[in-house]
Protein backbone atom coordinates (compact mmCIF):
# COMPACT_ATOMS: atom_id res chain seq x y z
CA UNK A 1 0.00 0.00 0.00
CA UNK A 2 1.15 3.51 -0.80
CA UNK A 3 1.74 5.21 2.56
CA UNK A 4 2.06 8.74 1.24
CA UNK A 5 -1.54 9.84 1.99
CA UNK A 6 -0.88 9.75 5.72
CA UNK A 7 2.28 11.88 5.45
CA UNK A 8 0.42 15.23 5.79
CA UNK A 9 -0.89 13.98 9.15
CA UNK A 10 2.22 12.21 10.45
CA UNK A 11 4.75 14.92 9.52
CA UNK A 12 3.20 17.74 11.59
CA UNK A 13 2.38 15.28 14.40
CA UNK A 14 6.01 14.18 14.71
CA UNK A 15 7.42 17.67 14.16
CA UNK A 16 5.01 19.19 16.68
CA UNK A 17 5.84 16.55 19.29
CA UNK A 18 9.58 17.06 18.82
CA UNK A 19 9.12 20.83 19.08
CA UNK A 20 7.18 20.43 22.34
CA UNK A 21 10.21 18.67 23.81
CA UNK A 22 12.70 21.12 22.37
CA UNK A 23 12.71 23.65 25.21
CA UNK A 24 16.52 23.78 25.21
CA UNK A 25 16.90 24.50 21.52
CA UNK A 26 17.71 28.01 20.40
CA UNK A 27 14.94 29.97 18.71
CA UNK A 28 16.81 29.75 15.39
CA UNK A 29 17.01 25.96 15.61
CA UNK A 30 13.27 25.76 16.34
CA UNK A 31 12.46 28.04 13.40
CA UNK A 32 14.68 26.02 11.07
CA UNK A 33 13.21 22.69 12.19
CA UNK A 34 9.64 23.93 11.92
CA UNK A 35 10.24 25.45 8.51
CA UNK A 36 11.85 22.21 7.30
CA UNK A 37 8.82 20.25 8.52
CA UNK A 38 6.44 22.61 6.71
CA UNK A 39 8.47 22.39 3.49
CA UNK A 40 8.40 18.59 3.77
CA UNK A 41 4.61 18.76 4.09
CA UNK A 42 4.41 20.97 1.03
CA UNK A 43 6.54 18.48 -0.92
CA UNK A 44 4.34 15.58 0.23
CA UNK A 45 1.25 17.55 -0.80
CA UNK A 46 2.77 18.28 -4.22
CA UNK A 47 3.62 14.60 -4.78
CA UNK A 48 0.06 13.64 -3.80
CA UNK A 49 -1.26 16.35 -6.11
CA UNK A 50 0.78 15.03 -9.04
CA UNK A 51 -0.40 11.46 -8.46
CA UNK A 52 -4.13 12.33 -8.40
CA UNK A 53 -3.92 15.06 -11.05
CA UNK A 54 -5.38 12.83 -13.74
CA UNK A 55 -8.44 12.04 -11.67
CA UNK A 56 -7.50 8.91 -9.75
CA UNK A 57 -8.50 8.67 -6.08
CA UNK A 58 -6.00 7.44 -3.49
CA UNK A 59 -7.56 5.57 -0.57
CA UNK A 60 -5.55 4.77 2.55
CA UNK A 61 -7.19 2.33 4.96
CA UNK A 62 -5.69 2.79 8.43
CA UNK A 63 -4.52 -0.50 9.90
CA UNK A 64 -5.63 -2.23 6.71
CA UNK A 65 -9.26 -2.31 7.87
CA UNK A 66 -11.37 -2.10 4.77
CA UNK A 67 -14.07 0.57 4.51
CA UNK A 68 -16.87 1.02 5.44
CA UNK A 69 -15.89 -0.49 8.80
CA UNK A 70 -12.33 0.81 8.97
CA UNK A 71 -11.14 4.41 8.99
CA UNK A 72 -10.01 5.75 5.63
CA UNK A 73 -8.08 8.72 4.33
CA UNK A 74 -9.05 9.75 0.82
CA UNK A 75 -7.02 11.94 -1.52
CA UNK A 76 -8.86 13.17 -4.57
CA UNK A 77 -8.22 16.23 -6.69
CA UNK A 78 -10.09 18.56 -4.32
CA UNK A 79 -8.28 17.36 -1.20
CA UNK A 80 -4.88 17.45 -2.93
CA UNK A 81 -5.46 21.02 -4.17
CA UNK A 82 -6.31 22.20 -0.67
CA UNK A 83 -3.31 20.36 0.79
CA UNK A 84 -0.99 22.20 -1.59
CA UNK A 85 -2.72 25.48 -0.76
CA UNK A 86 -2.28 24.84 2.97
CA UNK A 87 1.39 24.03 2.41
CA UNK A 88 2.01 27.27 0.52
CA UNK A 89 0.26 29.47 3.09
CA UNK A 90 1.94 27.64 5.98
CA UNK A 91 5.42 28.08 4.48
CA UNK A 92 4.96 31.79 3.84
CA UNK A 93 3.36 32.62 7.18
CA UNK A 94 6.00 30.66 9.05
CA UNK A 95 8.70 32.49 7.11
CA UNK A 96 7.03 35.76 8.06
CA UNK A 97 6.72 34.72 11.71
CA UNK A 98 10.40 33.82 11.86
CA UNK A 99 11.38 37.15 10.34
CA UNK A 100 9.06 39.54 12.15
CA UNK A 101 7.35 38.29 15.24
CA UNK A 102 9.10 38.17 18.55
CA UNK A 103 6.27 35.96 19.84
CA UNK A 104 7.27 33.31 17.32
CA UNK A 105 10.39 32.67 19.37
CA UNK A 106 8.28 31.49 22.30
CA UNK A 107 8.88 27.78 22.89
CA UNK A 108 5.33 26.64 22.19
CA UNK A 109 4.49 28.72 19.11
CA UNK A 110 6.11 26.43 16.56
CA UNK A 111 4.62 23.29 18.12
CA UNK A 112 1.13 24.81 18.09
CA UNK A 113 1.64 25.85 14.48
CA UNK A 114 2.40 22.23 13.56
CA UNK A 115 -0.63 20.90 15.44
CA UNK A 116 -2.77 23.46 13.67
CA UNK A 117 -1.53 22.07 10.35
CA UNK A 118 -2.17 18.53 11.58
CA UNK A 119 -5.82 19.41 12.17
CA UNK A 120 -6.28 21.26 8.88
CA UNK A 121 -4.64 18.60 6.72
CA UNK A 122 -6.39 15.79 8.57
CA UNK A 123 -9.75 17.44 7.95
CA UNK A 124 -8.96 17.64 4.22
CA UNK A 125 -7.95 13.97 4.10
CA UNK A 126 -10.49 12.20 6.24
CA UNK A 127 -13.11 9.99 4.63
CA UNK A 128 -15.70 9.89 7.40
CA UNK A 129 -17.79 12.28 9.46
CA UNK A 130 -16.53 11.38 12.89
CA UNK A 131 -12.89 11.90 12.01
CA UNK A 132 -13.90 15.18 10.43
CA UNK A 133 -15.18 16.10 13.90
CA UNK A 134 -11.96 14.91 15.54
CA UNK A 135 -9.72 16.88 13.16
CA UNK A 136 -11.96 19.94 13.57
CA UNK A 137 -11.33 19.75 17.29
CA UNK A 138 -7.57 19.31 16.79
CA UNK A 139 -7.35 22.35 14.57
CA UNK A 140 -9.63 24.37 16.84
CA UNK A 141 -7.75 23.68 20.05
CA UNK A 142 -4.51 24.67 18.33
CA UNK A 143 -6.16 27.75 16.85
CA UNK A 144 -7.43 28.88 20.28
CA UNK A 145 -3.90 28.73 21.62
CA UNK A 146 -2.42 30.47 18.58
CA UNK A 147 -5.09 33.15 18.73
CA UNK A 148 -4.28 33.77 22.38
CA UNK A 149 -0.59 34.04 21.60
CA UNK A 150 0.61 37.23 23.23
CA UNK A 151 -2.36 37.43 25.61
CA UNK A 152 -3.44 41.01 24.98
CA UNK A 153 -6.91 41.76 26.44
CA UNK A 154 -8.61 42.00 23.04
CA UNK A 155 -7.13 38.63 22.06
CA UNK A 156 -8.39 37.04 25.28
CA UNK A 157 -11.87 38.48 24.69
CA UNK A 158 -11.98 37.39 21.04
CA UNK A 159 -10.70 33.92 21.95
CA UNK A 160 -13.32 33.47 24.66
CA UNK A 161 -16.08 34.13 22.15
CA UNK A 162 -14.53 31.85 19.55
CA UNK A 163 -14.04 29.02 22.04
CA UNK A 164 -17.58 29.14 23.47
CA UNK A 165 -19.18 29.37 20.02
CA UNK A 166 -17.11 26.51 18.67
CA UNK A 167 -17.81 24.32 21.70
CA UNK A 168 -21.54 24.78 21.10
CA UNK A 169 -20.82 24.01 17.44
CA UNK A 170 -19.04 20.79 18.43
CA UNK A 171 -22.10 19.76 20.43
CA UNK A 172 -24.35 20.31 17.42
CA UNK A 173 -21.87 18.46 15.20
CA UNK A 174 -22.08 15.41 17.45
CA UNK A 175 -25.89 15.60 17.48
CA UNK A 176 -25.89 15.59 13.67
CA UNK A 177 -23.40 12.72 13.57
CA UNK A 178 -25.49 10.72 16.04
CA UNK A 179 -28.69 11.28 14.04
CA UNK A 180 -27.06 10.18 10.80
CA UNK A 181 -25.44 7.17 12.45
CA UNK A 182 -28.73 6.23 14.09
CA UNK A 183 -30.56 6.02 10.76
CA UNK A 184 -27.78 5.06 8.34
CA UNK A 185 -25.57 2.83 10.50
CA UNK A 186 -22.43 4.30 8.97
CA UNK A 187 -20.42 7.52 8.97
CA UNK A 188 -18.15 6.91 6.00
CA UNK A 189 -18.88 9.55 3.32
CA UNK A 190 -18.93 7.07 0.45
CA UNK A 191 -21.05 4.59 2.38
CA UNK A 192 -23.46 7.34 3.45
CA UNK A 193 -23.77 8.27 -0.23
CA UNK A 194 -25.10 4.76 -0.84
CA UNK A 195 -27.34 4.45 2.21
CA UNK A 196 -28.98 7.91 2.34
CA UNK A 197 -30.77 7.64 -1.06
CA UNK A 198 -32.65 4.49 -0.01
CA UNK A 199 -33.85 5.89 3.32
CA UNK A 200 -37.58 6.18 3.61
CA UNK A 201 -40.42 6.47 6.09
CA UNK A 202 -39.52 7.70 9.55
CA UNK A 203 -35.77 7.62 8.85
CA UNK A 204 -35.73 10.35 6.20
CA UNK A 205 -36.85 13.28 8.43
CA UNK A 206 -34.28 12.25 11.06
CA UNK A 207 -31.52 12.17 8.46
CA UNK A 208 -32.72 15.54 7.15
CA UNK A 209 -32.46 16.98 10.67
CA UNK A 210 -28.95 15.58 10.95
CA UNK A 211 -27.95 17.02 7.58
CA UNK A 212 -29.23 20.48 8.47
CA UNK A 213 -27.59 20.38 11.92
CA UNK A 214 -24.30 19.65 10.15
CA UNK A 215 -24.97 22.61 7.86
CA UNK A 216 -25.34 24.85 10.93
CA UNK A 217 -21.99 23.60 12.22
CA UNK A 218 -20.21 24.07 8.88
CA UNK A 219 -21.76 27.52 8.60
CA UNK A 220 -20.33 28.36 12.01
CA UNK A 221 -16.87 27.10 11.08
CA UNK A 222 -16.85 28.88 7.74
CA UNK A 223 -18.31 32.05 9.33
CA UNK A 224 -21.55 32.27 7.40
CA UNK A 225 -23.96 35.02 8.50
CA UNK A 226 -25.65 34.92 11.04
CA UNK A 227 -23.01 32.70 12.67
CA UNK A 228 -19.91 34.53 11.46
CA UNK A 229 -19.72 37.61 13.66
CA UNK A 230 -16.91 36.11 15.72
CA UNK A 231 -14.55 36.09 12.74
CA UNK A 232 -13.48 39.69 12.05
CA UNK A 233 -12.61 40.57 15.64
CA UNK A 234 -10.81 37.26 16.21
CA UNK A 235 -8.79 37.44 13.00
CA UNK A 236 -8.19 41.16 13.41
CA UNK A 237 -6.80 40.60 16.91
CA UNK A 238 -4.54 37.64 16.04
CA UNK A 239 -0.84 37.98 15.26
CA UNK A 240 -0.27 38.50 11.51
CA UNK A 241 1.33 35.14 10.71
CA UNK A 242 -1.40 33.36 12.68
CA UNK A 243 -4.14 35.36 10.92
CA UNK A 244 -2.58 34.45 7.55
CA UNK A 245 -2.80 30.77 8.45
CA UNK A 246 -6.35 31.31 9.72
CA UNK A 247 -7.24 32.34 6.15
CA UNK A 248 -7.08 28.58 5.48
CA UNK A 249 -9.08 27.79 8.60
CA UNK A 250 -12.45 29.13 7.40
CA UNK A 251 -11.88 27.23 4.15
CA UNK A 252 -12.01 24.00 6.16
CA UNK A 253 -15.67 24.72 6.90
CA UNK A 254 -16.26 25.50 3.22
CA UNK A 255 -14.44 22.29 2.29
CA UNK A 256 -16.74 20.32 4.60
CA UNK A 257 -19.77 21.77 2.80
CA UNK A 258 -18.33 20.98 -0.65
CA UNK A 259 -17.33 17.50 0.45
CA UNK A 260 -20.46 16.39 2.26
CA UNK A 261 -23.43 17.97 0.49
CA UNK A 262 -22.82 17.12 -3.21
CA UNK A 263 -21.61 13.62 -2.29
CA UNK A 264 -24.08 12.53 0.38
CA UNK A 265 -27.06 14.86 -0.06
CA UNK A 266 -26.73 15.57 -3.79
CA UNK A 267 -29.47 15.36 -6.42
CA UNK A 268 -29.33 11.55 -6.27
CA UNK A 269 -30.18 11.42 -2.54
CA UNK A 270 -33.86 10.48 -2.83
CA UNK A 271 -35.93 12.09 -0.08
CA UNK A 272 -32.96 14.17 1.02
CA UNK A 273 -31.92 15.47 -2.40
CA UNK A 274 -30.36 18.96 -2.29
CA UNK A 275 -31.27 19.43 1.34
CA UNK A 276 -28.91 22.40 1.75
CA UNK A 277 -29.91 24.28 -1.38
CA UNK A 278 -32.75 26.32 0.10
CA UNK A 279 -30.58 27.61 2.95
CA UNK A 280 -27.12 28.03 1.52
CA UNK A 281 -27.73 30.54 -1.27
CA UNK A 282 -29.57 33.25 0.74
CA UNK A 283 -27.16 32.93 3.65
CA UNK A 284 -24.14 33.09 1.34
CA UNK A 285 -25.50 36.20 -0.40
CA UNK A 286 -26.15 37.80 3.00
CA UNK A 287 -22.63 36.96 4.15
CA UNK A 288 -21.14 38.51 1.04
CA UNK A 289 -23.15 41.72 1.42
CA UNK A 290 -22.56 41.91 5.14
CA UNK A 291 -18.84 41.33 4.69
CA UNK A 292 -18.67 44.20 2.21
CA UNK A 293 -20.46 46.52 4.65
CA UNK A 294 -18.04 45.44 7.37
CA UNK A 295 -15.07 46.24 5.15
CA UNK A 296 -16.29 49.79 4.65
CA UNK A 297 -17.07 50.26 8.35
CA UNK A 298 -13.75 48.90 9.64
CA UNK A 299 -11.49 51.39 11.44
CA UNK A 300 -8.19 49.57 11.05
CA UNK A 301 -6.46 47.66 8.28
CA UNK A 302 -6.46 44.37 10.20
CA UNK A 303 -10.21 44.60 10.67
CA UNK A 304 -10.53 45.36 6.95
CA UNK A 305 -8.68 42.11 6.27
CA UNK A 306 -10.89 40.22 8.74
CA UNK A 307 -14.08 41.45 7.06
CA UNK A 308 -12.62 40.64 3.65
CA UNK A 309 -12.24 37.02 4.75
CA UNK A 310 -15.94 37.05 5.67
CA UNK A 311 -16.84 38.64 2.33
CA UNK A 312 -14.82 36.10 0.34
CA UNK A 313 -16.35 33.17 2.24
CA UNK A 314 -19.75 34.52 1.22
CA UNK A 315 -18.71 34.85 -2.44
CA UNK A 316 -17.35 31.35 -2.68
CA UNK A 317 -20.30 29.79 -0.89
CA UNK A 318 -22.53 31.52 -3.44
CA UNK A 319 -20.67 29.49 -6.06
CA UNK A 320 -21.07 26.30 -3.99
CA UNK A 321 -24.77 27.00 -3.45
CA UNK A 322 -25.43 26.77 -7.18
CA UNK A 323 -24.87 23.00 -6.76
CA UNK A 324 -23.64 22.52 -10.32
CA UNK A 325 -20.33 21.34 -11.80
CA UNK A 326 -19.38 24.81 -13.04
CA UNK A 327 -20.39 26.27 -9.67
CA UNK A 328 -18.04 23.90 -7.84
CA UNK A 329 -15.30 24.69 -10.36
CA UNK A 330 -15.69 28.42 -9.69
CA UNK A 331 -15.69 27.74 -5.93
CA UNK A 332 -12.46 25.75 -6.12
CA UNK A 333 -10.67 28.44 -8.13
CA UNK A 334 -12.01 31.19 -5.88
CA UNK A 335 -11.01 29.28 -2.72
CA UNK A 336 -7.40 29.07 -3.85
CA UNK A 337 -7.36 32.71 -4.93
CA UNK A 338 -9.09 34.16 -1.87
CA UNK A 339 -6.99 32.19 0.62
CA UNK A 340 -3.74 33.41 -0.94
CA UNK A 341 -5.03 36.98 -1.27
CA UNK A 342 -6.39 37.35 2.25
CA UNK A 343 -3.27 35.77 3.76
CA UNK A 344 -1.19 38.31 1.82
CA UNK A 345 -3.42 41.13 3.03
CA UNK A 346 -2.92 40.17 6.70
CA UNK A 347 0.87 40.14 6.22
CA UNK A 348 0.91 43.47 4.34
CA UNK A 349 -1.31 45.04 7.01
CA UNK A 350 1.19 43.98 9.64
CA UNK A 351 4.12 45.38 7.64
CA UNK A 352 2.28 48.69 7.31
CA UNK A 353 1.44 48.74 11.02
CA UNK A 354 5.10 48.19 11.80
CA UNK A 355 6.14 51.05 9.54
CA UNK A 356 3.70 53.59 11.03
CA UNK A 357 5.19 54.11 14.44
CA UNK A 358 2.39 56.22 15.87
CA UNK A 359 -0.84 55.18 14.16
CA UNK A 360 -0.23 51.46 13.68
CA UNK A 361 -2.78 50.03 11.28
CA UNK A 362 -5.56 52.52 12.18
CA UNK A 363 -7.03 54.40 9.24
CA UNK A 364 -6.09 57.81 10.69
CA UNK A 365 -3.95 60.68 9.58
CA UNK A 366 -0.40 60.07 10.70
CA UNK A 367 3.19 60.83 9.80
CA UNK A 368 4.23 59.73 6.34
CA UNK A 369 5.65 56.25 6.29
CA UNK A 370 9.42 55.92 5.87
CA UNK A 371 9.01 53.09 3.36
CA UNK A 372 5.72 54.22 1.88
CA UNK A 373 6.60 53.55 -1.77
CA UNK A 374 7.62 49.94 -1.22
CA UNK A 375 4.73 49.06 1.07
CA UNK A 376 2.33 51.10 -1.03
CA UNK A 377 3.18 49.01 -4.08
CA UNK A 378 2.65 45.81 -2.07
CA UNK A 379 -0.64 47.09 -0.70
CA UNK A 380 -1.79 48.16 -4.16
CA UNK A 381 -1.09 44.74 -5.68
CA UNK A 382 -2.80 42.99 -2.77
CA UNK A 383 -5.82 45.28 -2.90
CA UNK A 384 -6.22 44.73 -6.67
CA UNK A 385 -6.16 40.97 -6.06
CA UNK A 386 -8.53 41.03 -3.11
CA UNK A 387 -11.13 43.28 -4.70
CA UNK A 388 -11.24 41.29 -7.94
CA UNK A 389 -9.97 43.88 -10.40
CA UNK A 390 -8.23 42.79 -13.60
CA UNK A 391 -5.58 41.59 -14.32
CA UNK A 392 -5.10 39.42 -11.21
CA UNK A 393 -6.83 36.22 -10.17
CA UNK A 394 -9.67 37.80 -8.21
CA UNK A 395 -11.06 39.01 -11.52
CA UNK A 396 -10.92 35.54 -13.06
CA UNK A 397 -12.54 34.05 -9.95
CA UNK A 398 -15.38 36.59 -10.02
CA UNK A 399 -15.95 35.97 -13.75
CA UNK A 400 -16.12 32.22 -13.13
CA UNK A 401 -18.75 32.71 -10.40
CA UNK A 402 -20.76 35.08 -12.61
CA UNK A 403 -20.63 32.58 -15.49
CA UNK A 404 -21.66 29.71 -13.24
CA UNK A 405 -24.65 31.71 -11.97
CA UNK A 406 -25.70 32.49 -15.55
CA UNK A 407 -28.32 29.77 -15.84
CA UNK A 408 -29.62 29.97 -12.27
CA UNK A 409 -33.16 31.19 -11.59
CA UNK A 410 -31.94 33.86 -9.16
CA UNK A 411 -29.34 35.15 -11.61
CA UNK A 412 -30.29 38.82 -11.27
CA UNK A 413 -30.03 38.72 -7.50
CA UNK A 414 -26.70 36.86 -7.57
CA UNK A 415 -25.10 39.10 -10.20
CA UNK A 416 -26.41 42.22 -8.53
CA UNK A 417 -25.15 41.40 -5.07
CA UNK A 418 -21.83 39.99 -6.30
CA UNK A 419 -21.02 43.08 -8.36
CA UNK A 420 -22.46 45.50 -5.80
CA UNK A 421 -20.48 43.96 -2.95
CA UNK A 422 -17.32 43.96 -5.07
CA UNK A 423 -17.81 47.68 -5.76
CA UNK A 424 -18.20 48.42 -2.04
CA UNK A 425 -14.98 46.48 -1.32
CA UNK A 426 -13.12 48.46 -4.01
CA UNK A 427 -14.33 51.75 -2.51
CA UNK A 428 -13.37 50.63 1.00
CA UNK A 429 -9.90 49.49 -0.02
CA UNK A 430 -9.15 52.65 -1.99
CA UNK A 431 -10.33 54.70 0.99
CA UNK A 432 -8.07 52.68 3.30
CA UNK A 433 -5.13 53.03 0.92
CA UNK A 434 -5.51 56.78 0.50
CA UNK A 435 -5.96 57.27 4.26
CA UNK A 436 -2.77 55.37 5.01
CA UNK A 437 -0.48 56.45 2.19
CA UNK A 438 -1.66 59.89 1.05
CA UNK A 439 -3.43 61.65 3.89
CA UNK A 440 -0.27 62.16 5.86
CA UNK A 441 1.14 64.85 8.13
CA UNK A 442 4.58 66.38 7.61
CA UNK A 443 6.47 63.95 5.35
CA UNK A 444 9.11 61.90 7.03
CA UNK A 445 8.66 63.52 10.44
CA UNK A 446 8.53 60.26 12.34
CA UNK A 447 10.81 58.32 10.04
CA UNK A 448 12.40 55.98 12.54
CA UNK A 449 10.98 52.57 11.70
CA UNK A 450 13.44 50.05 10.30
CA UNK A 451 13.08 48.83 6.78
CA UNK A 452 11.31 45.45 6.84
CA UNK A 453 13.73 42.58 6.31
CA UNK A 454 13.98 40.65 3.06
CA UNK A 455 12.31 37.53 4.49
CA UNK A 456 9.36 39.56 5.79
CA UNK A 457 8.86 41.12 2.36
CA UNK A 458 9.37 37.80 0.60
CA UNK A 459 6.42 36.17 2.39
CA UNK A 460 3.61 38.38 1.02
CA UNK A 461 5.50 38.69 -2.28
CA UNK A 462 5.51 34.88 -2.62
CA UNK A 463 1.77 34.74 -1.95
CA UNK A 464 1.20 37.42 -4.60
CA UNK A 465 3.49 35.46 -6.93
CA UNK A 466 1.18 32.45 -6.58
CA UNK A 467 -1.78 34.71 -7.38
CA UNK A 468 -0.01 35.92 -10.52
CA UNK A 469 0.73 32.30 -11.46
CA UNK A 470 -2.99 31.52 -11.10
CA UNK A 471 -3.58 34.05 -13.89
CA UNK A 472 -0.48 33.38 -15.99
CA UNK A 473 -1.41 29.70 -16.17
CA UNK A 474 -5.08 30.57 -15.97
CA UNK A 475 -6.05 28.16 -18.74
CA UNK A 476 -4.70 25.07 -17.00
CA UNK A 477 -5.89 26.34 -13.59
CA UNK A 478 -9.49 26.78 -14.74
CA UNK A 479 -9.40 23.51 -16.69
CA UNK A 480 -8.25 21.76 -13.53
CA UNK A 481 -10.91 23.51 -11.44
CA UNK A 482 -13.52 22.35 -13.95
CA UNK A 483 -12.26 18.78 -13.64
CA UNK A 484 -12.61 19.04 -9.85
CA UNK A 485 -16.11 20.43 -10.35
CA UNK A 486 -17.08 17.47 -12.53
CA UNK A 487 -15.67 15.06 -9.90
CA UNK A 488 -17.85 16.69 -7.25
CA UNK A 489 -20.99 16.77 -9.38
CA UNK A 490 -20.60 13.10 -10.25
CA UNK A 491 -19.22 11.37 -7.15
CA UNK A 492 -19.46 7.80 -8.52
CA UNK A 493 -15.68 7.54 -8.99
CA UNK A 494 -15.10 8.63 -5.37
CA UNK A 495 -17.61 6.14 -3.99
CA UNK A 496 -16.24 3.27 -6.09
CA UNK A 497 -12.65 4.07 -5.13
CA UNK A 498 -13.45 4.07 -1.41
CA UNK A 499 -15.77 1.09 -1.25
CA UNK A 500 -14.07 -0.95 -3.98
CA UNK A 501 -15.96 -2.76 -6.70
CA UNK A 502 -17.72 -5.28 -4.51
CA UNK A 503 -19.40 -4.28 -1.30
CA UNK A 504 -22.63 -5.12 0.44
CA UNK A 505 -25.63 -3.29 -0.95
CA UNK A 506 -27.38 -1.08 1.59
CA UNK A 507 -30.40 -3.33 1.72
CA UNK A 508 -28.73 -6.62 2.60
CA UNK A 509 -26.07 -5.04 4.79
CA UNK A 510 -26.01 -6.66 8.19
CA UNK A 511 -27.16 -3.78 10.35
CA UNK A 512 -26.23 -3.98 14.01
CA UNK A 513 -29.69 -3.61 15.41
CA UNK B 1 -36.42 3.32 29.27
CA UNK B 2 -36.40 5.31 26.04
CA UNK B 3 -38.79 7.87 27.54
CA UNK B 4 -36.67 8.25 30.68
CA UNK B 5 -33.54 8.62 28.55
CA UNK B 6 -35.15 11.22 26.31
CA UNK B 7 -36.43 13.23 29.29
CA UNK B 8 -32.96 13.18 30.84
CA UNK B 9 -31.37 14.45 27.64
CA UNK B 10 -34.05 17.11 27.26
CA UNK B 11 -33.65 18.33 30.84
CA UNK B 12 -29.89 18.53 30.52
CA UNK B 13 -30.15 20.42 27.23
CA UNK B 14 -32.68 22.94 28.51
CA UNK B 15 -30.60 23.64 31.61
CA UNK B 16 -27.57 24.00 29.33
CA UNK B 17 -29.32 26.50 27.04
CA UNK B 18 -30.48 28.55 30.07
CA UNK B 19 -26.95 28.67 31.46
CA UNK B 20 -25.38 29.43 28.06
CA UNK B 21 -27.58 32.50 27.73
CA UNK B 22 -26.23 33.99 30.96
CA UNK B 23 -23.60 36.60 30.29
CA UNK B 24 -21.02 35.42 32.83
CA UNK B 25 -18.21 33.03 32.01
CA UNK B 26 -18.78 30.55 34.85
CA UNK B 27 -22.47 29.80 34.08
CA UNK B 28 -21.54 29.56 30.38
CA UNK B 29 -18.86 27.05 31.29
CA UNK B 30 -21.33 24.97 33.32
CA UNK B 31 -23.83 25.21 30.47
CA UNK B 32 -21.29 23.86 28.01
CA UNK B 33 -20.51 20.99 30.38
CA UNK B 34 -24.19 20.09 30.67
CA UNK B 35 -24.59 20.37 26.90
CA UNK B 36 -21.72 17.96 26.36
CA UNK B 37 -23.33 15.50 28.81
CA UNK B 38 -26.58 15.68 26.87
CA UNK B 39 -24.80 15.29 23.53
CA UNK B 40 -22.80 12.30 24.77
CA UNK B 41 -25.95 10.55 26.02
CA UNK B 42 -27.62 11.26 22.68
CA UNK B 43 -24.64 9.90 20.76
CA UNK B 44 -24.67 6.81 22.96
CA UNK B 45 -28.37 6.26 22.26
CA UNK B 46 -27.80 6.36 18.49
CA UNK B 47 -26.68 2.70 18.77
CA UNK B 48 -30.12 1.89 20.27
CA UNK B 49 -30.70 1.13 23.94
CA UNK B 50 -30.57 -2.53 24.87
CA UNK B 51 -30.70 -4.21 28.27
CA UNK B 52 -29.71 -7.65 29.50
CA UNK B 53 -27.62 -8.55 26.46
CA UNK B 54 -24.07 -9.69 25.87
CA UNK B 55 -21.52 -6.86 26.07
CA UNK B 56 -19.74 -8.14 22.96
CA UNK B 57 -20.65 -10.39 20.11
CA UNK B 58 -20.13 -14.13 20.13
CA UNK B 59 -21.21 -16.99 17.94
CA UNK B 60 -24.90 -17.66 18.26
CA UNK B 61 -25.68 -14.35 19.96
CA UNK B 62 -28.33 -12.40 18.08
CA UNK B 63 -28.67 -9.23 20.13
CA UNK B 64 -25.71 -7.22 21.30
CA UNK B 65 -25.13 -3.47 21.57
CA UNK B 66 -23.54 -1.60 18.68
CA UNK B 67 -19.94 -0.92 19.72
CA UNK B 68 -19.32 2.05 17.42
CA UNK B 69 -21.36 4.68 19.34
CA UNK B 70 -19.54 3.62 22.49
CA UNK B 71 -16.22 4.29 20.80
CA UNK B 72 -17.52 7.62 19.48
CA UNK B 73 -18.73 8.65 22.93
CA UNK B 74 -15.38 7.79 24.51
CA UNK B 75 -13.61 9.99 21.96
CA UNK B 76 -16.13 12.79 22.43
CA UNK B 77 -15.77 12.66 26.23
CA UNK B 78 -11.99 12.96 26.02
CA UNK B 79 -12.17 15.86 23.57
CA UNK B 80 -14.89 17.60 25.58
CA UNK B 81 -12.85 17.25 28.76
CA UNK B 82 -9.81 18.83 27.14
CA UNK B 83 -11.88 21.68 25.72
CA UNK B 84 -13.54 22.36 29.09
CA UNK B 85 -10.16 22.49 30.80
CA UNK B 86 -8.96 24.99 28.20
CA UNK B 87 -12.07 27.10 28.69
CA UNK B 88 -11.58 27.18 32.50
CA UNK B 89 -8.05 28.50 32.03
CA UNK B 90 -9.23 30.97 29.40
CA UNK B 91 -12.05 32.25 31.63
CA UNK B 92 -9.60 32.82 34.50
CA UNK B 93 -7.23 34.60 32.11
CA UNK B 94 -10.09 36.76 30.87
CA UNK B 95 -10.95 37.82 34.42
CA UNK B 96 -7.35 38.85 35.00
CA UNK B 97 -6.94 40.55 31.62
CA UNK B 98 -10.24 42.43 31.45
CA UNK B 99 -11.10 42.84 35.12
CA UNK B 100 -14.41 40.99 35.24
CA UNK B 101 -16.22 37.79 34.40
CA UNK B 102 -18.61 39.23 31.83
CA UNK B 103 -18.31 37.40 28.51
CA UNK B 104 -17.63 40.71 26.74
CA UNK B 105 -14.94 41.54 29.27
CA UNK B 106 -15.00 43.71 32.35
CA UNK B 107 -17.70 44.22 34.97
CA UNK B 108 -21.15 45.08 33.60
Brief write-up:
The complex is a heterodimer of chains A (513) and B (108). Chain A has 513 residues and is mainly alpha-helical. Chain A contains 19 helices and 2 strands.
What is the overall pLDDT average of chain A? 87
Based on secondary structure, the structural category of chain B is mainly alpha
Dominant shape of chain B:
elongated
Strand elements of chain B, count = 0
What percentage of residues of chain A falls in helices of 4 or more residues? over 70%
Helix residue percentage of chain B: 55-70%
Please report the number of helical segments of chain B. 3
Q: What are the secondary-structure elements of chain B, in order, as H or E?
A: HHH
Q: Supply the number of structural domains of chain A.
A: 1
Low-confidence stretches of chain B: none
Silhouette of chain A: globular
* Helix-strand string of chain A: HHEEHHHHHHHHHHHHHHHHH
Largest sheet of chain A: 2 strands, antiparallel
How many helices of chain A? The count is 19
